[in-house]
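Re: the multi-chain job from yesterday

Posting the exact lines I submitted so nobody has to dig through the queue logs.
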Amino acid sequence: MKNKLIAIEQIVEMIPDGAVLMIGGFLGDGTPDLLIDALLESGKKGFTVIANDTAFPDKGIGKLVANKIVKKVIVSHIGTNPETQKQMIDGSLEVELVPQGTLAEKIRAGGYGLGGILTPTGVGTIAEDDKQKITIDGKDFLVEVALKADFALIKAKKADFYGNLTFNLTSRNFNPLMAFAAETTIAQVEEIVPVGGLVPDEVVVPHAVVDYIVRGDVK
Amino acid sequence: MIQDSKLKKEVIAKRVAMELHDGDIVNLGIGIPTLVANYLPSGVEIFLQSENGILGMGPAPRPGFEHPQLINAGGMPVTFLPGAAAFDSAMSFGLIRGGHVDATVLGALQVDEEGHLANWMIPGKLVPGMGGAMDLVTGAKKVIVAMQHVNKNGTSKIVKKCSLPLTSIRRVNLIVTDMAVIEVTENGLILKEVAPETTVEEVIKATEAKLAIPDKVVQMPISL
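And the result, structure tokens for all chains:
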């Protein structure tokens, strides 16, 4: 089996301008900060970012937005980042807002081999614009199509050398879902343990969907 | 009418807390709803759910004990109570959308005669995104709106028809303000209670929407 543990510079080389990135985290908690910093230093740009939110201008995904290397975000919330709102208004950043539970399911569907999901959330609101509606047993649902990405940049607590992952407290959020939904999944982890060092019951994401591991610190 | 703004919030939070039952799974929004946890009646144990993946959320830790990977949906440091569970966002919204959350308490920009809620966007002015609000209002068993009766300009937030984009077409169940408790029914809004130091006439005057006024409107059973 190949060694999945690689240097962060090698990761950045793999990611081209304009790539579609899923990035884990909730207001920065559970966002792989080292991967974000490496992307910033690389000078690459034009990314589409799929994430829960754009955090703060000086934190997590917010830094990518503030440095103008993102052309589109698909997120549930931008209220904590004035820079996102400013760029949305001046037209330099495209913002697609998706209800949070719907976003989670669109990503899950992408990773689980589904074409999309049916949800009652958003029916009768502006979230239903341009979407197909289906009635089942008299109840209306929106058809929300699956999301996929070129790369998932996620953060976990521990990995073994195979790439099995565990998570810590509230930093789990979108990370396990995104791990399945990208062509290439890169996990920044706080600790690497030998194979066999994780109890099977504690593994949240199995190694099959993790391509590369990068070591970072608790943040 | 109550004038003091801190007291207004306290009245709302205290009254909403009476709607929660022992064992309830509850999601509290940001602002006044967060205060509700401070006023639970004795003997009532509830389990707070947070969108970012917690069931069994506790209060803020004491200074110095904050952990950067233990936050609430507003990004503030919190704690786990014994028996808490942590999970991913799909499971978190499975609880919410799947009808496993007994009650959600949310703020509002507007609520209308049909019980429709607008609380996530002011076109051209404020576009923070809906976050988890649309899923919460669509999926929770009971939706309680906790808000000030009028906005900063003195305009009623309980309107005939929402002019702002709706959060959901699901009707909210109860509106609790610093002036009144209003029940939302298929046939419209019913005034159930008035706040201390508040008259029925004052409530009617401060409300744009049509209110049904029963013969007997009691005072909120809370002490200031």
